[in-house]
Amino acid sequence: MRDQKLYDIAVIGGGINGAGIAADAAGRGLSVFLCEKDDLASHTSSASSKLIHGGLRYLEHREFRLVREALAEREVLLKKAPHIVHPMRFIMPHQPHLRPAWLIRAGLFFYDYLGKRERLLGSAAVRFDSCDSPLKANFTRGFEYSDCAVDDARLTVLNAVQARQHGAKIAVRTKCISAQHMAGLWLLEMQSAQGNYVIQAKMLVNAAGPWVASFIQNTLKAQPSYGIRLVQGSHIIVPKMYEQDKAFILQNHDQRIVFVIPYLQRFTLIGTTDREYQADPNNVQISSDEINYLLDVCNAHFKTQLSAADIVADYSGVRPLCDDESDNLSAVTRDYTLALSSNTEGEPPLLSVFGGKLTTYRKLAESALAYMQAYFPDMKQPWTKNSLLPGAENFSSAEDAVHTLMQKVQGLSAETAERWANAYGTLAFTWIGHISSVHELGEDLGHGLYALEVEYLVDQEWAVTAEDILKRRTKLYLQFSEAEVKALDVYLTALHERRLQKDVA
């Protein structure tokens, strides 16, 4: 085993909450270790509806504090990460038998004024032209409001990058297999492909998402303070259904809603579902019932009729919600709960994260750091609200970034420049360096994925496999053929071997 390095905090879990806590803590001067058993954002944090939103439907369940906090965070994240967070207008077709117009107007009034709006437009009533609208002719009126779209996986990765910039150690594909306390410290055994090793930490943060309770039970041999309910949410991706750039929020007879969202220029994203999940969170897959549910809701609203044959891709994740004993899955709170272990004499603190949603990850991290204040009284003050995520520095707009990239790298396609601008922002200029021609980017491994970008993702963003790169770093998996994926994996294997030989030498 390696030397037992001592950290202030060790974070278990590389999803958005773990990465957000690691970044906040490291920026306050704490020494931080984060381990993730798979890739960053490889589970719940890359399986969302890709939205930064207040949660309009949560108002029906009187989740006013959560909605207020989430609405405020929309504006914060628009400033923090303008390269990956974008304003989007949402249209809700009105169906009087589901919710009366006065109720929707009241909800949208609260939605407009519960949180401070600086950049986002307020809500409005709209009428649909039967010729121009993608909706069926029986939908003649509705409502429109603002929320934001986000690349969820990149939001997670960029928080990990920021944590590392402040000195945090990020260990992917590393599982904590043992956690014991000794002399007031946590003694943690880590398992990785390179072998097992032990670290020490003054505080342990359990941000394991769907595994938050099982980590406590199986690794810590204790009982969790709260129960957890795993709720499966699934999405399908189909070819672009309509030309306009607005999303739709569709009401359904079961009181649930389904989003229909323009996605990556050429696709439409449809989701999500809500169903209890009790199997292995490592192997979540969409069911035929969920597929039919999403197709039925869409086909009841849109002129374009879909079948299973139209589905380009699908994905599923489980949301680890704090169990509030609600009978209705849709009503189970999406709010987060933080549980600090009883601080008996000689026992190091354990902070566990139950629940939470993508939009409020930064506030969750601030709340976690507030718990840590008693143990680290010299740590710095909160700082993340007004800080920029990597790539947002000097970022004015995607259009300007695309123009600059195409000017700098002669021969670069507009499609690749746009992808770079919306994934990396100004970070792209750091790994492009002094390159002035597309021919200097190295081999094109498919669809504008050049060798230089792959090397950057391996060296600086913890990517190991083709799936890491295509699904969670670039979203190019929707364009790559099976043969191209295999070729990329071959390239990555050779790249890792070259890196290993260089390290040995």
Helix content range of the residues, please? 25-40%
Largest sheet: 10 strands, mixed
Using the CA coordinates, give the radius of gyration: 23 Å
According to CATH, the homologous superfamily of the largest domain is: D-Amino Acid Oxidase, subunit A, domain 2
Name of the CATH class of the largest domain: Alpha Beta
How many separate structural domains? 3
* Overall pLDDT level: 93
Q: Multimeric state of these chains?
A: single chain
Give the N-to-C terminal Cα separation.
Answer: 23 Å
Under the CATH scheme, the architecture of the largest domain is 2-Layer Sandwich
Sheet/helix structural class: alpha+beta
Number of strands: 18
Number of helices: 13
Determine the strand fraction and express it as a percent band: 15-25%
Shape: globular
CATH fold topology of the largest domain: D-Amino Acid Oxidase, Chain A, domain 2
Summarize the structure.
The protein has helices spanning 16-27, 64-80, 101-113, 152-165, 212-219, 288-301, 361-372, 398-408, 414-424, 427-432, 451-460, 466-474, 482-504, and strands spanning 6-12, 32-36, 51-52, 85-93, 124-127, 141-150, 169-172, 174-182, 185-192, 195-206, 228-239, 247-251, 257-263, 267-271, 275-276, 313-322, 336-340, 350-355.
